[in-house]
Amino acid sequence: MRFFFRSRKFKIISAVTAVILSLTLIAWIAGGIFAPQSSLSGVISSPFQRIATSISNGFRDFTQKFRDNETLIVEKSELQDEINHLNEQIADYEKIKAENEFYKNYLEIKDAHPDFQFESAVIISRDSNDEYGAFTIDAGSVDGIQVHDPVITDAGLVGYVSSVGLTTSKVTTILDPNISVGAIDSRTSDAGIIGGNLTLTSSGKTRMYNIRRTSSVAIGDYVVTSGSGVFPKGLLIGKISNISQEEFKTSLYAEIEPFVNVREIRQVMVITDFSGKTGGGK
Amino acid sequence: MTNQKNHYLHIVLYVIFFALLFLINYTEILPLRIANASPMPLVAAVVTVAFYYGEWLGFWSGLIAGIFADAVSSQLTGFNTILLMLIGLIAGLLMTYILNKNIYAAGVLSLSANILYFGAKWLVEYLFLGSNDAADYLLFYAVPSAVYSALFIIPFYFFGILVSKIKYPQ
Fold first, then answer.
1. Of chain B residues 84-113, which have a CB less than 8 A from chain A?
2. CB B20: neighbour CB atoms within 10 A?
3. Cβ of residue B167 closer than 8 Å to a chain A Cβ
4. Which of A14, A170, B7, B25 has the CA that lies 20 to 30 A from A115?
5. What value, to the nearest 5°, has the Cα angle with vertex A110 and ends A109 and A115?
């Protein structure tokens, strides 16, 4: 092995390693940008990823039809149950109507927020080693995307752009523990912070923590962005499905069922600009 | 001359192999996840190259695979590049100077490399950040993922044998 350390190959390996470490260090210091070598590889690989993702989506749609046929018999009996369930729901019509009105307002985000500048993007890859559903989109700095830009669908908030390359960007979702989105209960205006954890992510849920103990948040309430930080005010996040006390009973936390299933979406919108955008940390 | 042509042919075959693995791992064209175990087959692929071709090609395959993986993975910038090139280099050196070329050695290398990879991921993303989920991630995600990923060496080992038998047409 001593021979290897004296060889020309070892010198080349050492030089290449030094260059890679330097470029990576620069990217770390700059924050939120791809290392130059990754940015270049993103440009090269993104067309192939786009094709592979299209094939993957097509295959999933095709197999879904067969799965649907197999479940028809089961669905028939389930439909009867559903009719009964719907009858019960009629009783709550007024409540649902009010909720729908509220929801409709937020679904029409684009009309409601003329100050929003959108850039549409397609998901070209998903990191299967990321437990929180992180993915890569086919838009980067050349499309005007910047670090910390909010990412949404027509159903609500998906996450934010965590790093930007030339033609691709990585998105961190609202299931991630490191996201920290300022949020409020739309009914009571009680504030909290959105950030997931490992236990909830498997069921596709996230968490709103640091809610005052005296607050009157309730299961079924809608949670929207509060407008602090880099997210515009009023973006739908999800619905409260459970409320518990924090470990030391100093505050409450709520489990949130996001309106967007981040693992199923294929296309997103990036809000590249809006009035009051700070451009600061997330 | 023929040997050199064979060598280049093998490199082309491995480039296609890596490209397919990359697309499978990052586009869900063939979902590999089983429960919490989410494999990183590129680690075993880099070990395979190092196993058959030594530290030089092991290093380069790790470097290139890592750069492409970093372009799409959510991990810390440079995480895959640094780890995969290290894995390729160390596995290649061990094969050249210490280990015998058999499936047991390949298995040990693959398991060690995957423990290193997922152990580093656990340290960087959970332990150093003081996450409350650090223990859960280690037990229920990192360990199953490392073992599952290490198993990829079995088909890759035989793929390596197959490739080494392919000759450039005369």
1. 85, 89, 93, 96-97
2. 14
3. no
4. A170
5. 110
Q: What is the ipTM of this complex?
A: 0.83
**Fold (topology level) of A119-174:** Thrombin, subunit H (2.40.10)
Phi, psi (degrees; rounded to nearest 5) at A124? -105, -20
B chain contacts of residue A27, beta-carbon cutoff 8 Å: 77-78
Take residue B11 and report the two structure tokens written for it.
């490199």
Q: Does domain A181-267 have CATH number 2.40.10.350?
A: yes
Which residues of chain A make contact with B121, given a CB cutoff of 8 A? Answer: 129
B11 lies within 8 A of chain A by CB: no
pTM: 0.80
**For chain A, domain boundaries:** 1-104, 119-174, 181-267
The residue behind tokens 């092991």 is B58
The chain B residue lying nearest A41, using CA atoms, is B68
Residue A164, SS3 per DSSP? strand
For residues A188 and A217, the answer to whether their CB atoms sit within 8 Å is: yes
Tens digit of each residue's pLDDT (9 = 90 or more) over B86-143: 999 999 999 999 999 999 999 999 999 999 999 999 998 888 887 888 999 999 999 9
Cα separation, B136 vs B120, in Å, equals 15
Q: Pairing between strand A222-225 and A181-185?
A: antiparallel
- CA-closest candidate to residue A262, choices A109, A132, A107: A132
